[in-house]
Design goal:
Length: about 50
């Protein structure tokens, strides 16, 4: 029983070959995308 509790979650075979980026880069990318979209929508108010 003790060995079953310590099993690591195994990565699926197809996903094991993919290099995932760090989570912080996803957060930075999301912030950049939101900023660009807001600038596009509100460019009239920003650049009077």
């Amino acid at each position: 029983m003790h060995d079953e509790d310590q099993k690591k979650t195994e990565i699926p075979h197809r996903m094991s070959r993919i290099a995932f980026p760090k989570a912080k880069y996803g957060v930075y990318l999301a912030i950049m995308i939101i900023a660009v979209v807001l600038i596009i929508f509100y460019k009239d108010f920003i650049f009077k």
